[in-house]
Amino acid sequence: QVQLVESGGGLVQAGGSLRLSCAASGITFSIHGIGWHRQAPGKQRELVAAISSGGSTNYADSVKGRFTISRDNAKNTVYLQMNSLKPEDTAVYYCMLPAVDYWGQGTQVTVSS
Question: How far is CA 16 from CA 11, 71, 77, 87, in A?
């Protein structure tokens, strides 16, 4: 069965960096696009960044220039490098496979001011 396991979240001060990882199993990872979403308390879940099977990327306006999504097909893993973090980036971050509408369990990112 499909599994997505996120890691790398934590507490960081504003201006700091974190790298999230999402390890996939149970799928042919290389043929799928995959995305990172986040949900802050009291807010709707939103798409943060996505990467296609061919490596094309897109980002939410709020993170452009600060976040970078990448993938390593040999490791079945997608990454989200987050730099210049702001308190408003605080949220639970999820990776998601659109082709099968499957979500990971999420990892908490907290940015203190």
Answer: 10, 22, 23, 11
